[in-house]
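Schema walk-through. Below, the input block comes first and the output block second. Nothing else is stored per chain. Lengths vary across the set, and this one has 441 residues.
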Amino acid sequence: MNSLSPERRQAHRNYVVISSDNHAGADLLHYKPYLAHEWHDEFDAWASTYSNPWEFLDPRYELPGFVPDEDSLFIGAASWHSPLNWSSAKRLAHMEADGVVAEVLFPNTAPPFMPTSVFSGVQPTNRADYERRWAGLQAHNRWLVDFCAEAPGRRAGVAQILLIDVDETVAEIRRIHADGLTGGILLPLDGPEAMTLPLFFRDFEPVWATCEELNVPIHRHSAIPGILVSERTGPGAIAIGVAERDFYNHRALAQFMLSGIFDRYPKLRLVHSESGSGWVIRQLEMLDAICHAGRNAEGILTYLAPSIAPLSMLPSEYFARNCFLGATLMLPSEAQRRHEIGLRNIMWGVDYPHIEGTWPYSREALRHTFEGVPEDEIRLMVGGTAAEVYGFDLDLLQPIANRVGPTVAEVATPLERLPKVPDETYSPVFSALQVLEVERA
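--- output ---
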């Protein structure tokens, strides 16, 4: 990137912007053709009664006269029924208008037999329940293959898996890889109802080995742990889920690093998406401190030595080599600390089609977040690193970027006005600065 000649810079006058965190899924009934025929009757019965229990997340449903249409945006899991999830032509048009040429696709709708909604932490309770859920996730993965094929070279689909039957999980990883899904796999949500083994248990070694062998990225994605309010939980369940979501999402770092997974599988790649990026600085300081304490023979934490001795690197070094951040809703303050976080570990994202995402103000978000950042560093964070992690062809995408992408000069121009929150957007990318400006005034 740093060696671009003036001629090459002219040819690359527009940034190749790849969103590392968008969402897609089929309309509920459209999953049926992707299910094995033996499940069709059961699917019909399930689909006839299913409704998304997370619609309450969107406060606009409480507004008088609010009537959503096919272009409406919704908050997170409340958006599962939006046509923007599956309308291929429309989302391509939206992305191009926003300056984005390619996208990594996480799930967003309810796959067959899901008890709540996508990213739910509720696990199957018995083998029959597992088989239904597993069939449903596989149906989503098959649909995703076809959806990505509608925009060749511009979509990297992230497959859903469970970590219950490891042999079936490994077989599914091999299948989705053979079918051309380049986004990797999404680990089940970690949370109080997950009831799965911790990721560092040796039961999952075949999964990590297969992902390294096939160059398949592994993902954690932020979400509220899936406990709904009930008589048993009391009204605090949702607030507690919000308070604890970062803990459950971020602890995968310690589990992969301190267990030696990254030593056994040095080419494995772990991505944390939609969970911010600044948190990594403090997290790595803490994990490095644990390692240093375990290597100090005269310290009071020498009991750590058997855990730390097998590790060949510090956690911060594992992070630099093996870990990446889908830095959705990236703030200017995080961009300013990009070198502390890890410049080559950051991948900018839109979070389409969520109302908290930056669409249709992604061009403004780029200008706002990366003000004063050098061009070569911006290229890495908005597309270069994502292209490396997910196998996007930059030579294929650059001509598209030259047609629709933001120019270097455009991104370098400071914004004169931020999109208004919440009148125009709910994105915290813009509201955070507005709060700061009020404080300064």
